[in-house]
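Cross-check.
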Amino acid sequence: MSQDPSPVDEIALLRSRYIAGLIGPVMVAIGASLLFNHGLLEEIAAEVARDKAGTFLTGLLLLCAGLAIVQLHETLQGWPAIVTVIGWLTVLSGLARILFPFELAGIAPQLITGPAPMIGAAACLAVGGYLSVKAYL
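Predicted model, tokenized:
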């Protein structure tokens, strides 16, 4: 005899799928952009290093987006836990950019050297693809 999921569980899963449907395709686009624009990463990093106000403003946007995710999504079980973790990482990233815009803008050029961009691209494609599948299929 199987138990049907409770209405609360169904709502939580729908919320997870909805948020995953927003995050997943964005992560795939970021990963693809890193791969396709690999040659431009040095130029982009130099722009970021010069634009401390942009670093601060993206921090505000990331903080708001991350807080929206963690306010609506607190599941730490199964695949939806990925959504919660991404929400908290987004909060931390936003706070770091707000609190340390000069320091973070200054290290941007170092972040694009070596294998880091390709590892980041692969991670974005993998996690984003997984979330997209969970959301849309």
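Residues 24 and 130 are 7 Å apart (CA to CA). The longest helix spans residues 7-36. Passed to J.P. for a second look.
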